[in-house]
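the two lines:
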Amino acid sequence: MAFGPFFLLALMEGLVTAAVLALAASGLSLVFGVMRVVNVAHGAFFMLGAVLAWAVASAMPGQPAIAFLGALVIAPLLVAALAALADGLILKRLNYDPEATIVATIGLLYMIQQAVLALYGPNANPVTAPFELRLQLPWFGYSGYKLFVIVAAALVLLALWVFMTRTKVGLIMRATQVDRTTARSFGINVDRVYMGTFALGAALAALAGVLIVPIQQAHYLMGGDPLLLSFIVVIIGGLGSLRGTVVAALIIGLSDGVISMFFSPTLAKIIATLLVALVLVFRPQGLFGAKA
Amino acid sequence: MKVWALHLALIIALAVALAVLPPYPATTLARILVLAVFAMGYNLAFGYTGLLSLGHALFLAAGVFAAGLSAQFWGLSAGPALLLGVAAGGLVAAAVGLLALRTAGVSFMIVTLMFAQAGYLTVLYFGTITGGDEGFNLPAASRTVFGFDLSTDTPRFVAALVLFAVGLLASLALVRSSFGRSMVAMRENEERSRMLGINPFAVKLAALVLSGLYAGAAGAAYALLFGYAGANFATIQYSILPMLYVLLGGAGTTIGPFLGALLMFGLIEVTSRMARLWPVLEGMDYFLIGAALVVLVLFAPRGILGTLRERGLKWLP
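prediction for all of em together
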């Protein structure tokens, strides 16, 4: 293949990565923005979404399209319920102390991972894509499902943006983000906002997991890379800024696609992690953050 | 007096335990002692100075590979290899600290996590030298010190105990010194200590480097005593374990890290025995580690010895 089409393929692969990453990272960013909680278990929610999608799909054999639609609804809801439970039982009792919640969510990560290993097993299992469509470009064929992932992620992010900026609930969430104490004195039930935010963040991760699972198999350790990349995206985009998160996801996803195609993926990851650490040290507000 | 007597009594009790226990539990105890040294180092940074790092695996791995690689490629014997490991741990901690200590709190946790992750990936990237995921076994010739073979039981136990005793007594002396009190001042109120003329950055950097020296020593000792070096020492898991031990035993107590390591090993041992009866429990150690973290941070953030100290044993260091 000539360089041009090869580069195009790399860009398209990168765009798929970016779409899924933007979904997962926006959940992490939302939770950090509103609650000031760094959720280390976010990758585990992503993995749970993928594994639950497999569970739904294997419960309905022979109807990949219906099963997939079911998974798209059921998996995020279940994961959101679990997250709400974790919030009420653990995070709330810690008073959302930033350092204690990190330790607690590390614990949560281990528990979820191990529970999935016990119930689901160590194997990676595929889920059939809801439709088989191959777009024939002049140079190569491309999976139509991957394009669907990009469109679906964009729609969800758009809906999230409308929700945050145009609805009353979104307004309440943003008010809590700016000042929790004042919000409380205006009669906002901050505890409920936090629980809802944590559930919504987890649901976004789970949704990303469902979308990726026809491309990448469901495995109990699959949450590690998305977690790391989401961290990177959220930090580069400016902690808690949704727009910055999406822009950063595009940059990271596309450059990951391109760099991995030409260089060793491990080297690309080393450079990315070091860069992120340095961004946090020298520009803590993120590359796109407004001010310190 | 009471304090020094307590620590010496612990060391003597451990020596007796190593002497009378059958080989398998004694080897486990030696492992616990080496990991306790790692946790003691973590405790200096986290428990006393208030630096919650998620990147200590990097310092441990620096020790493991400095000792392991120098033994593998230069044929160094255990003594110099251990010193090299200690130095590597301290150097890496200094480099990380110079950058990461410009941040605090949550940012510090993430920056240290990122550095450790980059370190882990680097170990994998140079897999032809480091052995990558599979690691490598240290050459038997390098595992000797003063003519004793560290791969045999008695010298191994003695070496682990000596390392532990030196680490424990040094940390006791350190936290009772004026520098130790400056470290605690950083944890309690950084602004006030700055006003009193203490340079917070210098104190925190020194504490982190000391912590790195401990981690390097533990890593090198682990590689030399048990004969194996591998990328798994650089994984995030080895950053979490010392935190768990310290939280369980009691952050900011000298014996807490050892107690935490001992109890956590015991807990995992008990579950793996029960797993033989009920296979459902197979491999539940990580679940336990996770549950222990959550329970500790919820119900006993001060750990066992920290709670004891609050309930009357005020003299506990």
